[in-house]
Amino acid sequence: MEPLNSRSSLRRAVLASVCAGSLLAVGACGIIPAPVREGEPPPGRGGASAAEQATEAPEPSPSASEAPEGEFRTGTVPAEEPRFDESVLGPAPSGDDFTAAVEYEINRFVNMFAMEHDPDSSVSCEEMEASSGFEGTCTAGYADYEAEFVVTVTDDEGSVEYETGRLPVSRNALEERYRHHTGEEAVLCDMGEYKLVSSGASGISCETSGGESAGVEIAADGSGVSFSDR
């Protein structure tokens, strides 16, 4: 299995626990974007970087109804810009379970980054402590991929930073957004059903059957993509 890219990392900061003095759903506190940092992620508890510990599973094979990689796929042009619907994730955990709040937030981010909900996605964290300086690890699973996150609590109010290597994005989701961008039904993004990327330039290009093409850039906060027309 190919290791994830250890030269790039995704780094996020979020208030994971406290709003008005009580532990609430992570989403209620809001996401605070943090810059993507080039270089090695911080070491995990085992001494290796998070990116080095995460592994890439083989990409899932397309179903019989899907065109193979390299062929244009046709779909309806969305009337509005497609956006990830966070409501599909279900309600955030309530109560004072800080570990569950962190798990929910990371799972939310992984699905938003992919731009397509995986109902079988999951995150498992070691027991987290809402105390400044605490560092722990979480393992996220999405489709047939797995990645390790390093989580650091930055204050006693439950603010955390989390960092990982590359994460998967969905070809279906990219092509849907490219249809909206171009107004064309037949499009092709040069990837398998999923591709591991970090934020910024993804190395993915998309084109229409009419000859338009664009490079794909992934938003650092998991809010979607932009296309650099060529």
Characterization of the model:
This protein is of the alpha+beta class and 230 residues long. Helix content is 16%, strand content 32%. A six-stranded antiparallel beta sheet has the order 4-1-9-8-7-6. The longest helix has 17 residues, at 98-114. Mean pLDDT is 77; it is low at 1-9 and 16-68.
Layout of helices and strands, plus pairs?
Layout: E1 10-15, E2 18-19, E3 22-23, H1 26-29, E4 31-32, H2 50-53, E5 73-74, H3 98-114, E6 122-125, E7 135-142, E8 145-153, E9 159-164, E10 167-170, H4 171-182, E11 186-189, E12 194-197, E13 200-208, E14 213-218, E15 225-229
Antiparallel strand pairs: 1-4, 1-9, 2-3, 5-11, 6-7, 7-8, 8-9, 10-12, 11-13, 13-14, 14-15
Order of SSEs, N→C? EEEHEHEHEEEEEHEEEEE
Q: Order of strands across the biggest sheet? A: 4-1-9-8-7-6
Q: Level of helix content? A: 10-25%
What profile does the largest beta sheet have?
6 strands, antiparallel
The low-confidence parts are 1-9, 16-68
Structural class: alpha+beta
